[in-house]
Amino acid sequence: MSKNTQLITALFTLVFTLFAFQSNAAEFEEGVHYQEIKPYDVKKPEVREFFSFYCPHCFKQESFMREIKSKQEYFALIQYLLNKPL
C-alpha cells in the first residue's frame, strides 16, 4: 500500500470510530425511559422467575428452577410468563 492510501484509510477509520461512539450515547430520563423500583416490605423473601417458551436459556434453567422450587417454603415464588418471541 502506498503512504497516501494508508493515510486515507487511517483518517477514515478515525472519523468512523468517532461517529460510531457518538451515536451510541443516549440520555435516559427517569419516568420517561425507565422507572426506579422502590424497596418495599415483604413477609417472605421473593424469587421472581421470568421465562418464555421461545427462550433457549429459559429452557436450560428449568433444572435449576426445579431445585429452587423444592425450597419454596422459605420464600414466595412469583412467576411471569413472557409468551411473545422477540
Question: How would you sum up this structure, described in words?
Answer:
There is one protein chain. The protein is α+β, with helices and mostly antiparallel strands and 86 residues long. It contains 3 helices and 2 strands. It has helices at 3-24, 56-60, 62-69; strands at 46-51, 76-81. Strands 1-2 form a two-stranded parallel sheet. The chain is elongated and about 70 Å long.
Set out the fold topology.
Blueprint: H1 3-24, E1 46-51, H2 56-60, H3 62-69, E2 76-81
Parallel strand pairs: 1-2
Keywords:
two-stranded parallel sheet, elongated, 86 residues, single chain, 2 strands, alpha+beta, 41% helix
Question: Summed up, what is this model?
Answer:
This protein has helices at residues 3-24, 56-60, 62-69; strands at 46-51, 76-81.
Please give the number of β-strands. 2
Which term fits the overall shape? elongated
The strand line-up of the biggest sheet is: 1-2
Radius of gyration: 24 Å
Q: Strand content of the residues, in percent?
A: 5-15%
* Helix content percent band: 40-55%
**Structural class by sheet pairing and helices:** alpha+beta
Taking all residues together, what is the mean pLDDT?
76
> Termini separation (Å)?
45 Å
Number of helices: 3
Order of helical and strand elements = HEHHE
Low-pLDDT parts are: none
The largest pleated sheet is described as: 2 strands, parallel
- Identify the quaternary structure here: single chain
